[in-house]
Write a structure and sequence with these properties.
The protein is an alpha+beta fold. The chain is built from six helices and 14 strands. The chain has an eight-stranded antiparallel β-barrel. The chain has a five-stranded mixed beta sheet with strand order 2-1-3-4-5. Helix 2 packs parallel to helix 5. The chain is elongated, with a radius of gyration of 24 Å. It starts with a helix and ends with a strand. The N terminus is likely disordered.
């Protein structure tokens, strides 16, 4: 009898070990995710490139994915059902011949605008090729830039459903703790995400929850930026990601600023969030003084649009 009890305990312990190993395996399970970019009827290629790069960066930030860039214009040109194929099945039928089906997910975004005066429709769609599960999330937007600020949460949700992995936090959003100045609010990438104004030479400033953003200048140039918060939540740094571009300095004579193409440091903003919701601080850039160009720290104030 004692021997039987001992055997039962051994079986129980063995079962518990197997369960624990299975649990660990499921938590650590990696998926190959094949990213096919954005299918759209929008013709602004520059904005589309920014959008596609942003979505891919957010997918790469999800820890259990091995995200592979499969943007293929030939496939998208063959896909004519942007408006009606809300499940994405017609697109998946075209794309899945190019991927390995084992433990894999196909991911595509769909952005559609019926007419230039109507709202934007955006959907993220993913198909698990092993299980056949299709997951999608879609919303309607008044502004194209709202798509970008809203994307991270929707992308994580869709990938979570398709993979069966409930932990879809890619770690992109920064959680800030600690004290802040009494005249400032705690600041992080979440609570400043959105559209801002305040740069005299910029028509749009878009900050995203992913820790990235971009600034569109009045002269048509677009600057990609990174956004990072101090650990104590007291301030945020916004830093130019792109290489030197003379168009980032519209107040300086073009031939003059081109002489600094190899030595100009990235433009940088160090800002705090006021209790009234404005971003205020300093901008480190170059300015023209007579015939010379010199570094400067300028006062700036951004307000949310």
């Amino acid at each position: 009898m004692v021997k039987g009890k001992f055997l039962s305990k051994k079986i129980l312990l063995f079962a518990l070990c197997v369960f624990a190993q299975t649990l660990c395996f499921s938590q650590d399970k990696k998926f190959n995710l094949y990213y096919f970019g954005v299918v759209t009827n929008v013709n602004d290629q520059n904005m589309l490139n920014i959008t596609q790069d942003l979505f891919f960066a957010q997918l790469r930030g999800i820890g259990y994915l091995d995200a592979k860039d499969m943007r293929d214009d030939d496939i998208k040109d063959s896909y004519k059902q942007i408006q009606t194929d809300e499940s994405g099945e017609a697109f998946f039928n075209l794309a899945q011949g190019q991927v390995n089906a084992d433990n894999s997910i196909i991911f595509v975004a769909r952005i559609y605008r019926p007419r230039s005066d109507e709202k934007w429709q955006c959907a993220f769609i993913a198909k698990n090729l092993s299980s056949g599960t299709v997951a999608s999330k879609g919303k309607e937007y008044d502004s194209y830039y709202k798509i970008l600020t809203d994307a991270k949460v929707l992308i994580q949700s869709v990938v979570s459903q398709a993979s069966g992995n409930i932990d879809s936090d890619g770690g992109g959003a920064q959680k800030i703790t600690g004290g802040v100045r009494p005249d400032a609010a705690e600041i992080g990438t979440d609570n400043i995400a959105g559209s801002w104004g305040g740069e005299r030479d910029a028509s749009k400033i878009i900050l995203l929850r992913s820790g990235r953003g971009f600034i569109v200048f009045n002269n048509g140039a677009t600057m990609n930026v990174t956004v990072s918060a101090k650990e104590d939540g007291s301030s945020i740094k916004i830093l130019q990601r792109d290489k030197f571009n003379a168009s980032f300095y519209p107040d300086i004579d073009r031939q003059t600023i081109l002489n600094y193409a190899d030595s100009a440091p990235p433009i940088e903003w160090n800002l705090t969030l006021t209790k009234t919701g404005s971003l205020v601080g300093k901008k480190k850039t170059l300015v023209q003084s007579g015939a010379a160009v010199e570094p400067a720290s300028l006062d700036v104030a951004w307000t949310r649009k």
